[in-house]
Amino acid sequence: MSGNSSSYARAGVDTEAGDLAVELMKSAVSRTHGPNVFGGVGGFAGMFDVSFLKAFDRPILATSTDGVGTKVAIAQAIDKHDTIGQDLVGMVVDDIIVVGATPLFMTDYIACGKVYPQRIADIVRGIAEACEATGTALVGGETAEHPGLLGPDDYDVAGAAVGAVEADALLGPHRVADGDVVIAIASSGLHSNGFSLVRHILRERGIGFTDTSAELGGLVGEVLLEPTRLYTTPLVGLLGEHPGAVHSLSHVTGGGIAANLARVLPAGTWAELERSTWSPPEVFRALSTMAGATLESSEGTWNLGIGMIAVVDPDAADAVIASLASSGLPAWVAGRVSSGALAPSDDWVQGAKGVDGGAVRLTGEYRP
């Protein structure tokens, strides 16, 4: 080991462990590489050949970046790190399909207190497998060791992805019209949002992540680590199979159902979603019961069983639902878009995250 490396090691940074982690993850990452990827694994920059965009009339690049929030604390608590990567890809890549873009490539960033090669490889393997499932090349990444800033077992993950869409095919509020049908697409559970509330509820009840809970139906940490559902590949197929049928998409992440749908409706329109059209999965019911609260009180935090929403041409609704079902995505009609005066109420959510969009509220009672 060189003098510089030895000095770095005395400061708590193990570059050899980092190199071993890269070796352990290389095969998984390489499986995401098609003929458009240049340079392989380990370069200073990931490179991707986009000469195919010359065939576009007006190519638009779409990009997204995100993390998975405090869900990583649960992975760390039960020492299970092979699913958190899928959560990251879902949070990032499924934002790109919202505008109709097909994902091209992604990069990741892992900050940790100490590099444990197998742990880092497990995280990246999960990222790579989810990238492979969504047709996204994992072209680069970084693992940074931060001793003294993070504890030895602490880490956080983040990522960014880029996709492309023809300008004429962009989805968004500009396509939405009065009478459009709102189709809900099922989530796989909590996905990667609202875990600060989850952790608070469990802490108040004195329940640990390594405990077994009859209410949650198993080992608490494993139940909560159910990976985020990946929507990109089925939706890319849907958009190609039924061009023009989908007017806008909404990825239900932080802020809940109403706020995220409101972002993709034009100002002056509104939608009422009927709670009776679905039954929130048991994990949401159990956590609400533990908190002594109603499901309705968490609608601005959790997805409550809806991970993605499609606003579609009413004549195409049945075909869209059938296409999603054939891809393994349960979907159903949850409401319609209307324009004009709103019914007086304090429970409308209008716009979100700086977007002056439409208005949305949930009505009725959830199906048992």
Automatic annotation (TrEMBL):
Keywords attached to this entry: ATP-binding, Cytoplasm, Ligase, Nucleotide-binding, Purine biosynthesis
Places the protein is found: Cytoplasm
Lineage: Bacteria, Bacillati, Actinomycetota, Actinomycetes, Micrococcales
Enzyme superclass (EC): ligase
InterPro entries: PurM-like_C_dom (IPR010918), PurM-like_C_sf (IPR036676), PurM-like_N (IPR016188), PurM-like_N_sf (IPR036921), PurM_cligase (IPR004733)
Family of this protein: Belongs to the AIR synthase family.
Gene3D superfamilies: PurM-like C-terminal domain (3.90.650.10), PurM-like, N-terminal domain (3.30.1330.10)
Catalytic activities: 2-formamido-N(1)-(5-O-phospho-beta-D-ribosyl)acetamidine + ATP = 5-amino-1-(5-phospho-beta-D-ribosyl)imidazole + ADP + phosphate + H(+)
Key word Nucleotide-binding present: yes
Organism: Antiquaquibacter soli
EC number assigned by the record: 6.3.3.1
Domain PurM-like N-terminal, residue spans: 61-165
Protein name: Phosphoribosylformylglycinamidine cyclo-ligase
Molecular function terms from GO: phosphoribosylformylglycinamidine cyclo-ligase activity
Predominant location: cytoplasm
Record-annotated PurM-like C-terminal domain positions: 178-340
Pathway: Purine metabolism; IMP biosynthesis via de novo pathway; 5-amino-1-(5-phospho-D-ribosyl)imidazole from N(2)-formyl-N(1)-(5-phospho-D-ribosyl)glycinamide: step 2/2
Pfam families for the chain: AIRS, AIRS_C
